[in-house]
Amino acid sequence: MKTFDELIRCIILDTCFVTILPMITSDITAAFGSPMLLGECPLWDPELQRLYWIDIPGLTLHQLDPVTHQHCEWSLVSEPGCIACCASGGIIIALRHGIEHFCPLSGQFTSLIQAPYDQDKMRFNDGRCDSAGRFVLGTLYEPRDKTDALLYSLSKGNLALLGPRATVSNGVAFSPDNRRLYHSDTSAHQISIYDYELQSGSVSNQRLFQQFSKDKSNNYAGRPDGAAVDSEGAYWCAMFEGGALLRFSPDGELLLRLPLPVKCPTMLAFGGADLKTLFITTARHNRPAAELEQYPLSGHLLKVSVTVAGLNEHAYLMQ
């Protein structure tokens, strides 16, 4: 694990060091002691001041109070893909078999929507809510031989197809004014942006935001996974197999490359009372033994302090 001073020395060698130096104010450390198989979808609950996240193959939902270090976890019956806070309390969980509401106090799950796809080949993946209370979420096509994954919108119990296709839908995030939707296809190493019409929840005008190399022998920076937007409107992306977070301006300019003590970050979330703590989920599932030996924090939930705050996540409106 790199100390803060070591990290700064690494960053000084990076072409983006001028913009990175003021951003990071602490070491990157483990926020929770036990590793996940494949940690994903960290979610800060501003009401409870706690962090949720999921372990997809581990079939678990986790909750952590970062101040008291109190931790809870709940077993799930199928793989979770993403989660969102619910405005009436509790958590919305998109699982392979469908979307459910979960009450942490009672431990009760309530089915909302059955999966609209072939569960033998598909499951829900990344997603988040817009400011109107819709849950926008995508799917993952497991054969990965064609773009059969889709993006959906759940609005007050009604699931509608938004249209964008992918092989592995990921990186869903909204600009601060909710007029722009970011969406990536991890398998294509590509991030797209769309115009987003908040009143109707529709998307239009797809254009390329970032295209990353697929050539692992030349200029390979990993592939785009989960993401978040900060209070300055910058898009942060976890680069799976790239060992870093990237921060882009709304115009697509690379502002920051933050190297991590893991090879496979999966997603990030802003949390803490001031929303200036980055929580980062990571993977160890199916990774080579040599990689896990080199990066012992693989699978751990990480944290680091930054100077630019994030945004509170919007909650899903049940009715």
Q: How would you write the strand order of the largest sheet?
A: 1-24-23-22
CATH fourth-tier homologous superfamily: TolB, C-terminal domain
CATH architecture: 6 Propeller
| CATH topological fold name | Neuraminidase
Number of helices: 3
- For the record, the CATH class is Mainly Beta
Q: Taking Cα atoms only, what radius of gyration do you get, to the nearest Å?
A: 18 Å
Flag low-confidence runs.
Answer: 1-21
- Count of discrete domains: 1
Helicity range of the residues? under 10%
Structural class: mainly beta
Question: What does this protein look like?
Answer:
- The protein has helices at 4-12, 17-20, 289-294; strands spanning 29-30, 39-45, 50-55, 60-64, 71-75, 80-85, 91-95, 98-103, 108-114, 122-129, 135-141, 149-155, 158-166, 169-174, 180-185, 190-197, 202-211, 223-229, 235-240, 244-248, 254-259, 265-271, 277-282, 302-305.
- Strand 15 and strand 16 (190-197) form a beta hairpin.
- The termini are far apart.
- The chain has a single domain, classed as 6 Propeller (Neuraminidase), CATH 2.120.10.
- A four-stranded antiparallel sheet has the order 1-24-23-22, with no helix packed on it. Strands 2-3-4-5 form a four-stranded antiparallel sheet, with no helix packed on it. It has a four-stranded antiparallel sheet with strand order 6-7-8-9, with no helix packed on it.
- With 319 residues, the chain is mainly beta.
- It is globular, with a radius of gyration of 18 Å.
- Helix content is 6%, strand content 47%.
- 45% of the residues are buried.
